[in-house]
């Protein structure tokens, strides 16, 4: 339950009907019309809600912790058991509130309830923190990508590191690379869930194999079907399939910079209009773009590499904590 103004969308109502709305106090629960994700929303705030909803709270908050029940009502086990008091034939079936109120629920002492609620609340706060950090960094990266590369028709970016003032020079992609070629075919039987060397295709990691065909940092361009123009990267010994074009910068340029340059260029537009789009290496090499000197390339590539590392870190922490919470929900409730 959130305030209407925080919903992110317009929610209209007739103010004259508010007299019939139901009061929601902090610590109470609102039963949704459907059982999606349990259908029981905990409210940390006071307000009113539509009379179409059922609102309930513990008889005595000195014996029942709303924070405990908040997590219990969202636990996979509770949602599964909720099927005994729902009706309908589709997902999101209606909840029979009267039958729900007659069900038996096992619960621990008030002190244990508080500890369980506090533990899971702390995890929720950390999960939210890492998600927020991830989103903020992703937004920052997008903004910097827009400002640190020249806009169409310009040869200088809006934002630069101190000391760089020269205009960027127009070059063909093929002139920037020491290697610019498609990967090799690999049988599906040679790709496993584990192995010494990763296998990359047009959409990134596909699995692992026991041999490699490239070594070092590369930008990879998807070259077939819906993945045309998709850009990802690989660093170290790896195997690149024929669905990817491997690009490595020459001595005058920086591969780390090229990775972000290629990612901004909408390369899919050069795939043609056939039923099965494809990117030819020769076509890619002839595409023109603007680039700075190598020292500025390195500064830009290093900045975005650090941002990507932080974004990945917060995403990993978020996922680890979400997995931990799921495990605790399975183990801390009977």
UniProtKB/TrEMBL annotation:
Gene3D superfamilies per UniProt: Bipartite methylase S protein, DNA methylase specificity domains
Domain annotation Type I restriction modification DNA specificity: ranges: 166-321
Keywords (A to Z) from UniProt: DNA-binding, Endonuclease, Hydrolase, Nuclease, Restriction system
InterPro entries named among the record's database cross-references: Restrct_endonuc_typeI_TRD, Restrct_endonuc_typeI_TRD_sf, Type-I_RS_S_subunit
EC number: 3.1.21.-
GO molecular function: endonuclease activity; hydrolase activity
Top-level division of the source organism's lineage: Bacteria
Keyword Kinase: no
A Pfam family of this chain: Methylase_S
SUPFAM superfamilies: DNA methylase specificity domain
UniProt entry tagged with the keyword DNA-binding: yes
Membership in a protein family: Belongs to the type-I restriction system S methylase family.
PANTHER family found in the cross-reference section: TYPE I RESTRICTION ENZYME MJAVIII SPECIFICITY SUBUNIT, TYPE-1 RESTRICTION ENZYME ECOKI SPECIFICITY PROTEIN
Name recorded for this polypeptide: Restriction endonuclease subunit S
Lineage: Bacteria, Bacillati, Actinomycetota, Coriobacteriia, Coriobacteriales
